[in-house]
Specification:
This protein has 5 helices and 5 strands, in the order ααααβββββα. Strands 1-2-3-4-5 form a 5-stranded antiparallel β-sheet. Among the domains are: 45 residues; 97 residues, no CATH class. By secondary structure, it is an alpha+beta fold. A hairpin with a 5-residue loop joins β1 and β2.
């Protein structure tokens, strides 16, 4: 079947003039495909929204607006999950408790501290210090596999005032662990993302049949 698009009136818009090549290319392709005006308008709005967000996120990064970087980061993760058709509910389930905790943070503690788990100790001179304990996540081992503590991967957020007092994540695998700061954790997250993408590709390949 051949689709013939009717010529549109008005001034011709150069590719990239109104929001980038992808923006105009998608709209032009939809128009040529003969989609109805309501769908075309919805696509126009969605693309414009995405373009505006992209400009905003880039500005947040370029200008170093640290107070907005967490918002940009979570939005980027949501977009990544939507485009890869991954569920966003697990992400929401983690965000909601964090927002609730921030509204009732006790003085001297972090919003992520787990109630009743932080420990106050004292130096030899009597000065107090606190071991702050936050969220702990564990990836269980597959059935039939064994490793120390039966934990393939474990991560826990903490801050030890006895040392630097800065928040860090203890990352453990099979009993061996290391404390990671933000930049180091970013590297681990990137590596895990790549690994998970590979696993998803393998999962799709499991459905492929052997060539005859």
């Amino acid at each position: 079947m051949t689709i013939i698009a009717e010529p549109q009136s008005g001034t011709k818009t150069n590719i990239g003039q109104s929001g980038g090549e992808m923006y105009d290319t998608v709209l032009s392709a939809l128009a040529l495909a003969g989609v109805d005006s309501a769908t075309l308008q919805h696509a126009h709005q969605a693309l414009a929204t995405g373009y505006v967000y992209g400009v905003w996120a880039q500005a947040v990064n370029d200008l170093g607006l640290e107070e907005l970087m967490p918002v940009a980061a979570i939005n980027a993760e949501v977009i990544k999950r939507v485009t890869s058709r991954r569920p966003i509910k697990p992400l929401i389930d983690m965000i909601e408790p964090e927002h609730a905790a921030q509204s009732k943070t006790e003085p001297g503690h972090f919003p992520w501290c787990r109630s009743g788990t932080c420990t106050t100790r004292h130096f030899d001179d009597g000065t107090p210090y606190t071991e702050h304990t936050g969220r702990r996540i564990t990836m269980p081992i597959p059935e039939g596999m064994s490793c120390r503590a039966n934990q393939l991967l474990t991560a826990e957020l903490s801050a030890l005032e006895e040392f630097s007092g800065a928040p860090m994540v203890s990352f453990t695998s099979g009993g061996n662990g290391v404390c990671l700061e933000a930049a180091e954790l970013d590297t681990v997250i990137g590596n895990l993302d790549t690994f998970l993408d590979g696993l998803r590709a393998m999962r799709r390949q499991l459905e492929q049949e052997q060539a005859q």
